[in-house]
Structure formats: structure tokens, C-alpha cells
Amino acid sequence: MVIAQETAGWQELLSEQLKLVGESLPTLLSGTAITVELTICLLLLGFTLAVPVALGQIYGPAPLRWLMGAYERFFRAIPILVLLVFFVFGLKVNLPAFLSAALVFGVHSSAYQSQIFRGAIQSISLGQISAARAIGLTRLQAIRYIVLPQAFRLAIPAWSNEYSSVLKDTSFAFTVGLVELNQRAVQIANYPTHHDKVFALFFTVAIIYLILTTLGTRLLEMIERRFRIPGLTVHTGAAHSHG
Amino acid sequence: MASEFLVRIHDLHKRYGHEEVLKGVSLNVRPGETKAIIGPSGTGKSTMLRCINRLTDPDQGQIWLESTEVTAHGVDLNKIRQQIGFVFQDFNLFQHLTALDNVRLGLMKVKNMPKDRATELALYELKRVGLEHKANAYPNQLSGGQQQRVSIARALAMEPKLMLFDEPTSALDPELIGEVLKVMKTLADEGMTMLIVTHELGFARSVCDEIIFMEKGFIVEQGSPEQLFNNPKQPRTREFLSKLSELYGESPA
Amino acid sequence: MSWETLCQNFAEDSFWRLACDSVPKISQGTLLTIEITFAAIAIGFVFGLLLALGRVYGNRPIYALCSGYVHFVRGTPLLVQLLIIYYGLPSFEIRLDPVLAGIIGLGINSAAYQAEYFRGAIQSIRAGQMQAALAIGMSRPQAIRSIILPQALRLVIPPWSNELIYTLKYSSAVSFLAVDELYWTGHHIAVKTYRYFDVYLIIAFIYLALVLILTKIIDKIEDRLRIPGLEIKH
Ligand SMILES: Nc1ncnc2c1ncn2[C@@H]1O[C@H](COP(=O)(O)OP(=O)(O)O)[C@@H](O)[C@H]1O
Ligand SMILES: [Mg+2]
Fold it and tell me: Which of B33, B167, B169, B233 is deepest in the core (most CB within 10 A)?
């Protein structure tokens, strides 16, 4: 590590770096749009897969429970980076980069989301299901009208963690060729003339991510408050998500 | 098959693992009758009640509701359950729904009633239990006694032929028991057929037509309140009654 | 007999031949992954504990500083943090060796997450414990060190163990700085041999095995340190 003597004034350094940030901003913002789109798509796909996986693990027959459990553990144990390259290069799946990324991230997220929903579903008392059956609702109706509406509410805080976690993970999407927010910055930084001048650039990228995670988390907090059941304070163990 | 009984239970058996919880229970209930089931805990009272609407499946024996065999293979359970109201010890209100929605849900989803009609009926049932002013409250905004009354309204809304109560006041603070018992007494007076597992001997004595004493998976003794409370034939019944009145500080006499 | 001759027992182009040939390189990569993970966890532990103490016991400025740090790091991707350190710091003439940059990046990232686990555990210790310690004449720092932390650190193991596994998995991001850890080693072999499927499968299973082993070790430690009747309530 070498700390050279400070010759160029801070001001000069700063203005030079900020100029680069200013020039790059439109590119960064269009990358931001891709990042946001990818995050939304992967969360939706993850959600769609996670609900049946969670339900299968709780209400399914033994083999299904085992299978779903293995699915969850497998996708949670392997780094997303490895999953991405395995899909595109290992399995040689040739799809548009965005689609590949959404698929792999979505499946990965579904393993985490199903754990979140599983915890929430299991925290709902069995007595309520008995009560639902007692007035003549079918098993599916009891799940649909009694279990899931409560489980989804309870899951919001942990789910908000998952949102933040996958948003950050999308920065790995460059491995399948998607040029999203972070990769735009990397490409700019790779211009030879920009070497050693990109601190502010990457810091700006960080701030954009920070704004996205904070906004999303706040939004979900608002939703949680809006749908909170009056008088009810149930705490599920927060899913251990890197949110 | 026509019958003078609304419910007939014949030789009901149920085991959990090695433990035989019901060892051949038989019981008949006529329309309009109210029967109390008493007995020590762990005796199989809840299990028997839950077998009647098949929340639990018996291993052996038959149950009929009028001419329908509840225990037959391939019966439409959801049809049968609509005709049998069940009130749980811990209420089991749907936590995410208001009192009104708790009562209305079955009408709309099971009976496919249009919303306005279901609302009207649900409000009527809430009024019957004295809670129409709490229609928009959520379960956790209600006292235990109020929650139990909502759960009774929820069961009544399905217009059941039979109401089953599993220790409906056991989870309540003493000062809240009365309001629930009052609702149940009104129901009995109106001619509802009821099977009630309870430790409230005073209530059982004044409201019920017959008392059934269960122990260790058997019906030990059954008879009119007069006979069972004042003149129990079995020594076990006598023992249990004296223990219970000691515990609750009330004598059924 | 050398490793290479041993590997010649497997048929050319077979999966096992590839696996065998890759053993020396992959074991080096695995070792580096383990080293980076543990170094980062160690940095994160010390730094995270300080952050947690700052957030629980610190005065306003310290609280604000620690909270700001935690929010910033948790709100931004690890990869961007690594890029700031490796490509950004040279703006100030600070140039780090890639492995060191990776360890520092992963460490200060992990610190923010560990801090939250520590904070949760510290705050779950009943206030009476601190009062009892003060009542027998301990100073606050003493009470924190010998009463609060020994309890909090035991409680934190189950949630904290997740962080260990996360750090292991996310150490793969250091490959972006061309550090030859497990993932990047595998990538090299895959590109050279064109055996992407086989190589990535091997890599995936090594990560899976590492995660399983780590989980077992943590369970053992947790059993060893358990205080009867004392458990964290979720
Ligand atoms: N779902 C179940 N699984 C296993 N054992 C059960 C179950 N339900 C009840 N039991 C057992 O059956 C016995 C009778 O229970 P229950 O019918 O609840 O008795 P009571 O209502 O008279 O107190 C008890 O020993 C109880 O532990
Ligand atoms: Mg019972």
C-alpha cells in the first residue's frame, strides 16, 4: 500500500471526478432502469415458485416435502455467481441476457422466499384451519382465505429483506452478459483515460443502490402498516436473508 | 331411514399410537335436546366431539346425522360440516378478519351467498349474540368473551342443525364466562340441539336435559341432572363431582 | 507416483479425469476461499462488535456514525463496495493488492451484517443484568465485557452462523478482482478445457460441501457453549 504525497489539490481531484459522474449519469440511469426491471421480474418469478414450494413443504406428502426441502437447501447453498454461469455456460441455455438473469435469480430467490413463507404459514394457528373446516370450507379454501392472507401479511418484513438482498445481487448479472447499473459503471471505468478517476463514479453507483434499497424498504414498510391487522402483534423469526 | 334422533353415535373407537382414546362410545341425541359432557381432562371428550364433524376421523364405529352416515366413505364432509356448528375452547377466530367477516366468510365462500345477503344475515347473528356494535372490530380488539360470542355467531350463521361446544368458557376470565353462558342458554331455550363439553356444573344442571360423565374413553354414566348430580350410581362419578366442586367452589345442587 | 500419472488411470475426456486433473488447482482455490472467508469474518467480527456497541451504548454522534455505516453497507452491493476499494481508492493513490482488497471489502461488508446480529443479541439481554452488575460495583465497560457480552455472544451464534455461510458464498465476488479463489479457479479451468458443465458442477458441489461442513461445525460449537435455559427468542 502506497500513499503518495498529496500534490494535486482535493478540489481539482473532486471536480475532475464529478465531471465524469456528470457525463456518465444518463448511462447509469438507464442501467438503473434495467436493474429495477430485473429486480421486479425476478421477485415475481421467485414469488410464483415460492408459494407452491412452501405449501408443498407444509401440506404435501412426504416425498414432496423432501423434494421441496432439498430444492430450498440446494439453491441456498450455492453462490449466485456459480448458478448464473452454470445456467448459461454449463447448461448452454441460449436466451437473451435479461431473460437468463431473471430466470436464474428468480429460482434462487424462490428458495429464500419459500423459507420466508414457510415460516409465516407455520406461525398461523392450526385452530384457525380447524375452525375453517368446521364451517365447511375445503382444505384449499382454508389455505386460500385463512392461511395465505395472514401469511403474506406476516411475511412482509422478511420479504422486504429479500427485496433488498436480490436488488444487490443483480450486480452479478454481468456474468450472463447483462449490462445493468453496476456493469455500466465498470465499462466506463475500463476506459484507459478513466483509470484512477473512478472513486466518485462507483460511489455514485453505491448511492443509487442505496436509494433503491431504502425506497423499496420504506414502501414495503408502508404496505405492511397499511395491511397490519389491528391489535395483532405476531413476530415471526426474521428470515436470515442478507437484506 | 327415519329416526327419532338427530345424532346417533354407535361404538366409536379412536386410538392415537398405542393410546386408545375412545373405547366404544355410543350416544343418541334427539332434536332440541341439550346434553352436557363432563369428565376429567384427557378422557377423550374433545376427540369424540371432533369425530362428530370429522375434524378427527374415528377408527371404528358409526355416526349418523339424521339419515346421513357421517362416517361413511365418500360423504361430502363439507356439506355435513355446514350442518354442524363447532365452538372451540380458544375461539379460533380468523385473525385477519373483522367480526363481521368472520361470520360472513362461510356464507359467501361455502354457501355462495351474495355479499349483501350474507352481510344482512351475519349482522343478524352478531345481534343475536349481542355484538352488532362490534361488527368492524378485529379479534384482537375484542375481549375473550366477545371473541367466543363471535365464534358462536360464526357457527350459527351456517344455520346448523346441531351445535357442538368444546369447553367454550374454559379459556375465559371468570367475569367473562357469564356472557357466553347466557348466549348458550338462549340457544337452548330456542330449541337448538347442543352437545356441550363443560366444567360449568351449575350451567349444566340448569340448562341441560342430560349429563354424560366420560372417563378414560368410556361413558361411565349418563342421566338427568337431578339423578346424576344428586344420586350418581357410579362411585367414579361421585368422586369426580366432589373434586370438581372443590376446585370450582361451586356445587351443582 | 505423481498426481498426474495417477490421473491417467481415468479415461481421457472422462469426468473423473477432468476432476482428478483439476484437484491441485481447485484445492488451492478452495484453500484461498477458506482463507479469505475466515479473514473477512474475523475483521467483520471485531469491527461489527464495535459497531453494535456503538449503536447500543454510544452517544448520539457515535450512534449516528455507526448507524450510517451499517445502513450504507447493507444498502449497497458487495460488488460495488469491492469496486470502490479496488478501483476507486487509487484516486487517492491508495493501491491494494487484490487479495487484500478482497478481504478488506468482504470484511467491512460482513461487519455491517454482523453488527446487526450482535445488536439484536445485546438488546435481548434483560436490562436487569446490567443493573445487577452496576449494583455490585462494576463499571459500565466492565459490565458490558463480563456480563452482557458473554451472554450475547452465545445467543448470537445461531443467527450469526448464517452470516458465516453468506460470507463463504459471497467470497466468490472477490473473483471480480481476478483473485484465484474457488470460483475464479473453476472459471479458468472451464474456459481452458471447454468443460463448463463439468467444472461448474464440481465447483457447485464444493461450495455445497463447504456449507454443509461449516453448518456441522457451528452446530457443534453451539452445543458446547449452550447455557441451559438461555435461548434467543425470535
Ligand atoms: N391429535 C392428537 N394426536 C395424538 N394424541 C392426541 C391427539 N388429540 C388428542 N390426543 C390424546 O388423546 C387423549 C384424549 O384427548 P382429548 O380428546 O383432547 O381429551 P379431553 O378433551 O377429554 O381432555 C389425550 O391423552 C390426548 O393427549
Ligand atoms: Mg378437551
Answer: B169
